[in-house]
Amino acid sequence: MKAVILAAGEGRRLRPFTETMPKVMLPVANKPMLEYVIDAVKTSGINEIVLVVGYKKEVIMDYFKDYEDINITYVIQEKQLGTAHALLQTKDLIDGDFLVLSGDNIIDHRGIEKLLKEKSKYSMLIKEHVHPSKYGVVVVEKNILKEIVEKPSEEGEKFISTGIFKFPDSIFEKVEEITSQGVYELTDVIQSVVDRGEKIRSIRSDFWMDIVYPWDLLIVNERMLHTTKTSTSGVIENGVTMKGPISVGENTKIYAGSYISGPVVIGDGCEIGPNACIFPSTTIGNNAVVHPFSEIRNSVIMNDVHIGSNSFVSHSVIGRGSVIGGNFSSIAGKATIEIEEEFNKLDNIGVMIAEDCVIGSNVVVEPGMLIGRGCEISSLKRIMKNIASQSNVM
Questions:
Q1: Could you list the residue range(s) of the whole structural domain that residue 37 is in?
Q2: pTM of the model
């Protein structure tokens, strides 16, 4: 059996982090989201994947070019019209039953194995969710799907579609019929199958997470870090205190006087300290530098980031290649953030800085600020509003 993974979209609500990479490549515990999906598929025993790519496809294809133990065939969706349209691009490569998965969710092999064992012609994974308005809500009766409602207005805990299905190859007839009418989402295909009297069996997923907004990276990263196992490949100097599960990558140096409390993952080729403090639920990417007397809490620090001395970073996301001067402070607190004309109230959020920013010393950032990619911020500034990409704050 083959697995089709849909990974062509951008992830507009995750801007500015998706301006240069697709959503599926954003890191969680130092691995792209898509890698978790592929690993789950591989662990479930499937060794052939059809990967639908589109937006910034080169980033995906370059990362997985040497991926072992599984055969990946790429299909390009030139225009990202929708999930049904993306699936249609794989028609000539599918023969028999197959799985469909989203590349921008975190899933484990257990859910996939449940689908593989299911004997029904059509089946899907569903999950309870407290914010169903971003998804397709499912109405189920005796585990049989009765209706799927795309992005309902009312909130409250409901079962949603995870976007993970097992289909026969005959589904492509219905996909062609729906897309020929100018409708391009898989939820519409699923509803048309139900309307014709076909039974779609629903299976509850034990483990499934999605990232919709930039701050979701912190939530999902924290949960995945709780699966961290202690592993030390770098150099740990005398006088370093380490507690809890901590993973330290190759050629990384942790200098004397530093304090690290897990779960924490630190990548390859990093330099931490001396006298730096890294607190739980923090991920630090490859080739990052945390200078002396700095403190990082519950944050995602991507590859090639430099954080100056005496800095404080809390509940924040810092994009790859950003360089931050000394005495930087990201204040974590309550904030209301507008994205795509939606207002989101958060209780404890710091700053979200996209890639390749250069920030001077003694900069303070208010809670919930979004700083776009390639920005330059001079020293001694207090950032109290969002900064668009490629901006200079002098």
A1: 2-212
A2: 0.90
Buried b (16+ CB within 10 A) or exposed e, 277-305: bbbbbbbbbbbbbbbbbbbbbbbbbbbbb
- Tokens 């999930």 correspond to 83
Asked if the structure places residue 100 within a domain, the reply is yes
Q: Please list the alpha-helical segments (H only) found in the chain.
A: 33-43, 57-63, 83-88, 109-117, 171-179, 186-195, 216-225
C-alpha–C-alpha distance, residues 257 and 260, integer Å? 10
Cα separation, 86 vs 82, whole angstroms:
6
Residues 131 and 181 placed together within one structural domain of the fold? yes
**Residue 259: what residue type?**
Y
CATH number for the domain spanning 72: value is 3.90.550.10
Same domain (yes/no): 131, 207: yes
Q: In the structure, what pLDDT confidence band is assigned to residue 142 with cuts at 50, 70 and 90?
A: confident
The model's pLDDT over 291-339, given as tens digits with 9 standing for 90+, comes to 999 999 999 999 999 999 999 999 999 999 999 999 999 989 999 998 8
